[in-house]
Each structure stands twice: as C-alpha cells, then as structure tokens.
Amino acid sequence: MxxxxxxxxxxxxxxxxxxxxxxLIDASAGINWSILANISPQNEFHGGSYQSYPSYSxxxxxxxxxxxxxxxxxxxxxxRSNFNWKYETGGHSPNGQDALFKLDxxxxxxxxxFSFGKTFQVFFNIGPYINFLLYSAKSGYKIYYxxxxxxxxxxxxxxxxxxxxxxxxxxxGLQSSFGITYYIxxxxxxxxxxxxxxxxxxxxxxYSSDGNVKNASIHxxxxxxxxxxxxxxx
Length: 234
Hints:
Elements (H helix, E strand, L loop, with lengths): L1 H19 L1 E16 L7 E21 L4 E20 L5 E22 L3 E29 L2 E11 L8 E16 L2 E12 L14 E15 L6
Antiparallel strand pairs: 1-2, 1-9, 2-3, 3-4, 4-5, 5-6, 5-7, 7-8, 8-9
C-alpha cells in the first residue's frame, strides 16, 4: 500500500512539474579527453607520469525550467577515460608500473543553468557532480627490482584484467557546460556544447599516500534537443 502511495505521489509531482515547466531533453555524443590531474608525489615517489588519449562520450540530459533565463537542470553522462600511468617508487625495494587504463564512468550532475536567445539559444551551467565507476580494465607491466648476484635487476611482469583494486568506484567534483542550440522548429534543435569536470576526491586506491590522483575531463558533444512545452504553451 505504501508503495502505491509513493508511486501516486511521484506521479503527481511529475504532473505538476510538467504543467508548470518546460522540459528539455538533450541526447549528445562526441569525444572526451580525460587526464590525471593534481598528482602530488612525496619524496619516496619518483618517475610518476601519465599520458591521456581521446575516447568516446555520450550524454542524456533532462532539464526543467520555469523562466527563460534561469532554470534547474539534471544530466547523466556516460564516458570513458583512457590513459597510460607510469610510476616508480624509491627506497631499497623500488617498484612501480607502466600500464594503460580504461575507466567507464556514469556522471550525474544537478545545476542552475543560464540561457538566452530563442532560435539560437546560448546556455551555461555549473554545479556539483558525482561519478560512478561502471567498468575498468588495465594492461601493461608491473615493475620491480630483484637482487641477482648482488646486482639489482629491473623485472617487468605483465598485468591485465580489472582495475577495481586500483581505483575507487565513486568520485565527486564540479562540472560546467557551455553550448549553443539552434532550434529548427519550436520543439526540435541541434546542440553543440563543451562540458568539463574536475574531481575533488582522489580516485586511486593504491599508493594514495605517495601520489594523489584526481580525474579531470573535457567533452565536445554534438546532439539533438527536444523541447516539451508546459500546458499553458500547448
């Protein structure tokens, strides 16, 4: 009975929002460039480096607005981070890795958005986001040094499989987006936008005391926007 009441309550809220708000639905796809940002090694952390590679990105964004200038938005973005991470630690028993990582994220964000224009509509938003790690993989080498006949010899062993032991499954930070929508007709338009994010949490599990790794990304997206007017506009 409580479940039925909850469903009825949510339905009434959605109906009320639809009657008072415009609903914008944006579906976009494009390219993403993710990097490891703010690596801050301590004294025992040596040779840390990373290289990022472009990958795909897609987003589904739903926004409701009560005015022409300011409205509240919600977005869900799926994207991949591709990067090579190489490091070596110091000390008497140094170790490290040289590996390619692939991380698939689901980013959820809520934000106030400012927009102006009618046929050509310019918009900008900024707000917090949370990231959920959906998939991870790594391939490359673990590096360590072995004493052979009193000589320290560098040894590389292959690694592959999931990277869930290397990275946290949750991330939090700030995102922003800027773009232009061209409305071909009143309820349908073409949108191009740039979206970026910067994490505030360390995403790495391993060696977190040696190097603080934060995720940053830039997305260039092209897509379509559907505008569902409120009942007063129909």
